[in-house]
């Protein structure tokens, strides 16, 4: 219960900071974010709807998609994060924007947005439904989650450049790059892909739970404790940034998993994401 409360506090704080960054730095200067928020910002210029309402509406299909494939708690956190973000954008919208200087807007808007989104992700929530779809698509095609998200955002920034001007597209891309780096820092260095190694006495049970809840297989290794002289199961798998929180929840259900390491992956050769019909 304590961890669940802490996660909702992080989501609340992150959604508020992200909404502040959007309404006080990016929107007034026509600087666009990627993903659903970026799509909503573009649509808001042509539709008589508040930005927060558009973010909620456009995210709904992705939430339904997640509900059919992921845990109920994860979907609840997504809905809560989007709701808080939508409400807070309406709160910050009437306030005078923080700056009209483009470089300051790009820098501070990108940093604050990265902090906000990073806190939401750290709490197990999500503000961008496209990342959920990217995770699912990457399990069926030989393209990583990061590449899919990058492709989506390139399209969004290209549309923004065509509808407004090329400078706005370039400023948006720069702000997105800054926020992406800050998200990594807030999440304690989590990159899009992480390798996980678990030393446990119940390897089969843990592996089955990972397969059931994340749709991933693991590689089994055999080890022996130096002091205990007992055999240990060593599990190795690769997961995406969006799945880190769920993986930690699974590990909490297996207290006998005495040692866990989560490391950055700088490069992957071959397909590392498997569907439930695949194997490692």
Detailed description of the structure:
It is a single chain. The protein is an alpha+beta fold and 280 residues long. The chain has 2 domains: 2-186, no CATH class; 193-264, Alpha-Beta Plaits. It has 10 helices and 4 strands. The protein has helices at 2-26, 35-44, 51-69, 72-92, 102-122, 129-138, 145-163, 166-186, 203-214, 244-252; strands spanning 193-200, 219-224, 231-240, 259-264. The protein is elongated and about 65 Å long. The two termini are 35 Å apart. Mean pLDDT is 80; it is low at 272-280.
Can I get a quick summary?
By secondary structure, this protein is of the alpha+beta class. It has helices at residues 2-26, 35-44, 51-69, 72-92, 102-122, 129-138, 145-163, 166-186, 203-214, 244-252, and strands at residues 193-200, 219-224, 231-240, 259-264.
